[in-house]
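for the writeup, i need someone to sanity check this before i put it in the appendix. the sequnce is what the collaborator sent (i think, or maybe the updated version? ugh). structure was predicted straight from it, no edits. if anything looks off just tell me and ill rerun, i have time this weekend
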Amino acid sequence: MQVYVWKNMFDWAYAGVDPKFAGNGGPDCVNFLTPKQRTIETVAICLISILEMAIAWKHLKLPSHIPEERNYRLGKRLLLVLLCLTFGIEIGYKFATRTVIYLLNPCHVLSMVQIYLLAVPPSKTVLVVFRMQMTSLSCPLLAILLPVVNTRLLPFETVIYWLQHILIYVVIPPYLLSLRGAYTTESWGNLWWCLFTTGVLFLYHMIPLQLLGLVLEVNLNNMVCPAPTDPFYGPWYRLYALVHQHMLLPIHLLIYTAIVKFIVPCDSLTNTCNGEITKKQY
């Protein structure tokens, strides 16, 4: 009874999710995996994630001083306004369609993280958040390569989808990297931040996203059942994801930063574009 009342209380957040669309949710989606398999997979993946974070934690390093960033405040403000407007419109669409629950998906969370990075002054906390979101950029890449826009029926809703993902993947991270300062990644051979973030991402998917998805029968980021277009569609799709995401995240991070480093030249004196910033003593 309490669950029923609780679900009705938050009807505005998920009632618009139509289970008729394959992969959206519903009873069939919830029952795609047996409770036993789902429990075993959840416990196993969570333990792996915690182990990764514990191992990586010992190797995480921060500089004793954050170098000064380039004085491009106007660019940061313009991008902050543009991203806030775009994300604000997206939130409006979610309320209009009663699918606010989808704001918990990684690309929307990444949008909020980048709003924070554009809004606050440089600090060690900003450096940590920036490095973790760099590892997470494979999420908008997949959204660009495999877009799901068949449920976007309102005017310009698809346009906002593309604008948001282009901003958070193509525009804002390279711009922040060009500022130097706190917006730098680890050196090429150092993937400890990547490993730590991978553990965080899997915990986020397996605990809050999966639990909410099961209770509300909403397939948040395909944690309840696989997408119809998933090349690994089947009962073991989450274990396949465990493997290919552990390969994709570090490979994508290295390729992405290499391309940005080629486009955005480093400072010839400090060479701190997006590499090792702890070599210089401050």
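The two ends are 61 Å apart (CA to CA). The chain is about 60% helix and 0% strand.
thx in advance!!
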